[in-house]
Amino acid sequence: MRILIQRVSEARVVVGGQTVGQIGLGLLALVGAARGDDEAVVGFLAEKMLGLRIFGDDQGKMNLSVGEIGGAILLVSQFTLLGDCRRGRRPSFAGAAEPALAECLFLSLGRRLEASVPVSYGRFGAHMAVSLVNDGPVTFMLEKVTASPGGDGQSPSS
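Predicted structure:
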């Protein structure tokens, strides 16, 4: 699973001209589920996201988590994070989880996060317009690599 997180002062998702998810201060999380991902991966990344100290304290140091600043998380599914561009000109999405599994993992991630902070959502599988004000800018990639059935065993960066 790969999650691209951006520290934002605001973010929203629009589908078909209507806002379906919106937050103020917090994290925009673009989430891509990979083949082989499971609940253990989801739990690991939920805890990592909630615990990251990437918000400024009174001295301006990155020392506070999203929960400590009273922030929220906007989750947006994005299978293209699993695109493999190492060969050719068209990305391969062979490493992405099947849509049914990806949606289950995406929703599970949301439920885990909701236990600690407010969570808003994009619409899984929809064409979305995502807008944000990246605060900093501050952007991080979270990843938990699992062995994918039928994969070549290489990480995307290899």
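Summary: Residues 2-141 form a domain with the D-tyrosyl-trna(Tyr) Deacylase; Chain: A; fold (CATH 3.50.80.10).
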